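Tutorial, part two.
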Amino acid sequence: MLVEGFWADIAKGIKNRQLRFFGLEHMSMMNLAIILINISTIRSYFRINTTYGFKKLWNIYIWIYLIILSSIPWSFSPLTSRPNFR
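Running the prediction step on this input gives:
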């Protein structure tokens, strides 16, 4: 419902922070995380047995994890006002 409301009128959806979060930011950040996981795994596939390859993969996965955590609609987040349980 929130995403449909955002895409129904994008100009008004951008101004509403909850609609913008669920309609644009959450969706795009999760897709970015999936793309980065796939790219980093493929690129480090041949260098994983080296120390450098593992450290690089580890650092990239930490950044991806932070992207995912920042785009989860937490109850204490200033971007959304949702309860933990419904």
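The chain has four helices and no strands. In part three we will examine how such features are distributed along the chain.
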